[in-house]
Amino acid sequence: xxxxxxxxxxxxxxxxxxxxxxxxxxxxxxxxxxxxxxxxxxxxxxxxxxxxxxxxxxxxxxxxxxxxxxxxxxxxxxxxxxxxxxxxxxxxxxxxxxxxxxxxxxxxxxxxxxxxxxxxxxxxxxxxxxxxxxxxxxxxxxxxxxxxxxxxxxxxxxxxxxxxxxxxxxxxxxxxxxxxxxxxxxxxxxxxxxxxxxxxxxxxxxxxxxxxxxxxxxxxxxxxxxxxxxxxxxxxxxxxxxxxxxxxxxxxxxxxxxxxxxxxxxxxxxxxxxxxxxxxxxxxxxxxxxxxxxxxxxxxxxxxxxxxxxxxxxxxxxxxxxxxxxxxxxxxxxxxxxxxxxxxxxxxxxxxxxxxxxxxxxxxxxxxxxxxxxxxxxxxxxxxxxxxxxxxxxxxxxxxxxxxxxxxxxxxxxxxxxxxxxxxxxxxxxxxxxxxxxxxxxxxxxxxxxxxxxxxxxxxxxxxxxxxxxxxxxxxxxxxxxxxxxxxx
Length: 489
Ligand code: ADP
Known about the structure:
Belongs to the aldehyde dehydrogenase family. By secondary structure, the chain is an alpha/beta fold. It has helices at residues 49-66, 71-87, 89-100, 104-124, 163-175, 188-200, 218-227, 240-251, 275-287, 307-319, 339-354, 387-390, 406-414, 429-438, 473-476, and strands at 15-17, 20-22, 29-33, 40-45, 131-133, 141-148, 151-155, 178-182, 208-210, 231-237, 256-260, 265-269, 297-303, 358-361, 377-380, 397-403, 418-419, 421-425, 443-446, 461-462, 465-466, 479-486.
């Protein structure tokens, strides 16, 4: 049971509040485990609402000065943070793989993606422009200026432990807000590493704070982060269930809220699609992060004329995937990140099998590799009564459903309360426009499965969330419009 503390530059067993490395006020710690082998990788403070109050007070104090910095000053500091994060990308990727289990190549990809937000928002800060309006009255001049909303709470998940923080904190800091981050219990060390380099970059004390806790304290910290009078807004990425709870809690104080919740992405392959391109896209989308992304394809809808061919090609490519410890070179699919995920995927597959689904390949845990590994699995014979038909699978289990017409495919695709991403493959340009318009989702991949970047507006509709992250719209979540009316001119 080897500790990997040499990777961690920040002082051990502490979190980062008000520019200092501090233990939990209760003195409690909790252990982070490597999902590939169950070995402990480090201990972090198990903080509670009391620590959260301290962090919020620090953020409130820091807001007094941070909000008055110029956009350029904030941009320069964010850029320094970006430069350090780029220098440290290998270390950061190793930490991500240790905590989350994702293959090292994907962790490097996440660092690049995460850093792109810091880079992007370091520039966007200077483009938070206001407006001067044509006044209807001669003696009046009307202006809109944009101001930071204040202290924001950022609650993040374990599937992108790095990029989900930079996507939020980059925008918040660029806007002039200060923040308290609560990372997921599976991946707090990644958050602490980000804070460590933020400090090195000269981000002033109190501007960025991290409150770590185990799952049992998440509800009380979540309550404080959504109801404290200090908090102006909350941004959350995670499950729909917790998102709804936070939305409710935020309503008591009418807080600004941004939610990036679960998806149930359709992946439609039309009769005229390039099947090689489509199956490559399907592999990338379904097995990235072991299927644990909210924009993963959840339902493969395949035109009946190409169904068998698609299944064969998809299964052949699936069999070539190397499952294993993500820190080993050449591995494509790591373990599921935690026991809850493993149990969920096992339950969804067992339910489908019981109700008559057919296994094309895979179909069981890869137990010889460790407790949390699962074989890339493809099933057909899906019926609407199966859990896999409606639930977000979040694992390496692909389900394929045949359809006859475009209308039928779109109807199935939209038959969910979720609406995050949707994908389809076609070579018919009219069909591309029609289907892109008709899919009830916030993001559409057309003959493309990898759609994210700092420049893209990420977000969902329906129960998948509120607001957009990344792009120039990402800043809007953290500013409000103040209308100024100069009179009696
Ligand atoms: P998942 O099911 O993928 O773990 P969650 O929504 O449960 O997704 O977790 C996302 C984040 O929400 C994590 O940081 C987790 O600790 C946090 N969280 C869980 N429960 C609560 C809660 N009641 N209030 C606030 N945050 C919570």
